Amino acid sequence: MVSGEFDLVFRMGQLQDSSLICRKLIDLPIMTLATEKYLSQYEKLTHPKDLKNHQCITGSVKHWSFSNKIDPAIKVDIAIEGQFQCKNGRAMLISALADNGIVRVPKLYCEQEVKNKDLISVFDEWEIPDTPLYMVYVQNKFMPNKLKVFIEFVVNNFNRYL
């Protein structure tokens, strides 16, 4: 961004400290999902450590953190491996729909697939903490007016479109 290729980007997850302006827009619920066909080939997963015996479809996050729904003080961090890795949530979702493994994606990406039961939740008692979504841009006194207007529009209206 600093190189001048983009005026503004949207980023999920924790951000590194930088000279950029980071405006938090929302915390996105995250789901751990797979197809029934994929899951039927294995014993039922009951604990996040069971993921070590599965193909996980991963992006840039190589450790998945879970908390217990019954006792949120119980937390587990698991190193994830898989044959399919990419940084495109839609491609990861398509791979999971093709019975290639277990995926972790924002609920926003998969609401219809979950509603249609094309993908099902892997765990009953474990969940992934919500992931923040940020709007990130460079602050400078020469910012184009249309960018200022767009930023203000997003800040004021983002939640209406979810």
Please supply descriptive tags for the structure shown above:
alpha+beta; 162 residues
Describe the structure.
The structure is a single chain. The chain has about 160 residues and is an alpha+beta fold. It has one domain: D-Maltodextrin-Binding Protein, domain 2. The protein has helices at about 35-40, 90-95, 105-115, 145-155; strands at about 10, 20-35, 55, 65-70, 75-80, 100-105, 120, 125-135. Strands 1, 2, 3, 4, 5, 6, 7 and 8 form an eight-stranded mixed beta sheet that branches. Strand 4 (about 65-70) and strand 5 form a beta hairpin. The two termini are about 25 Å apart. The model has no long low-confidence stretch (mean pLDDT about 90). This is LysR substrate binding domain-containing protein.
CATH topology: D-Maltodextrin-Binding Protein, domain 2
Helix % is 10-25%
**Tally of domains:** 1
Number of strands: 8
Element-by-element helix/strand order:
EEHEEEHEHEEH
The value of Rg in angstroms is 18 Å
Query: What is the annotated CATH architecture?
Result: 3-Layer(aba) Sandwich
| Average predicted local confidence, pLDDT | 90
- Separation of the first and last Cα atoms: 26 Å
Number of helices: 4
- Strand percentage, roughly? 25-35%
Domain LysR substrate-binding: 3-157
GO biological process, one term: DNA-templated transcription
Organism: Pseudoalteromonas denitrificans DSM 6059
GO molecular function, one term: DNA-binding transcription factor activity
Short description:
This protein has 162 residues and is of the alpha+beta class. The protein has helices at residues 36-40, 89-97, 107-115, 145-157, and strands spanning 8-12, 21-34, 56-57, 63-68, 75-79, 102-106, 120-121, 126-137.
